[in-house]
Amino acid sequence: MIDARWDVHVTEHRNPSAAEARHGTLDVPLTVWQVADAASLTAGLFAEFKPARGPIVAVDVPGWETIPRHARHGIILTRNRRGATAVLKQLPTAKQGLVTIRPVSLTNLSWTLAAIEARIGLVVASAWLLEREGAFAAAANALKPDGLIALIARSHDEQARLTRLAAPPDIRDFSDDVPAALGMAYAGHIVAAAPKVFDAAVAAAEARTATRRSCPAAARHFDVFLWRKTDADQDGEADA
Hints:
Largest sheet: 8 strands, mixed
Number of strands: 8
Number of helices: 9
Helix content: 25-40%
Radius of gyration: 18 Å
């Protein structure tokens, strides 16, 4: 397992001629990506981590339509069924059948995840997933060996909660689901934003005015925390 206390690598990949695309590979534990918006971040996570087979779960994130567009089956858990249905109708008819839309709330999120019968290779979710006790555990249990959970934070509170969740077990002091107990190993951290956000942050830092008031764009970035399924018991079940 990568321990962020000991080693940090930061990479940034710039391509001014293709600003709308996602740029960056994965250099753990810290990587920097350029993305145009939240939807392109979801598309980038799919492109980087898509499993070889099986459905992909998206929870409360935009951009999930990239999954069926690439001929993969998606299970879409959404708080906005009407919006998701409108997006679905914009897809080619042949692609629409690849998507299963399931409306969720904090009341049914955990058991909806727990009811997924397929072994999942990738779950991409907003930090809202952590608002419901047991939801992270349900997502972890749905994963096949070596599967990934990618949680996306936007606000400072969400970033702080995911940072605590990724902390080594010996310094964790909160009651969230414990990833290690669920067979989940911390796998990396991605900071993603539009080029103008990075440029504004650099300019503010150079001017020694890097505060939220002087550089509001600095607050408009995404933090993505990654966990990988490594539970040996799951390996045994998969081979049985």
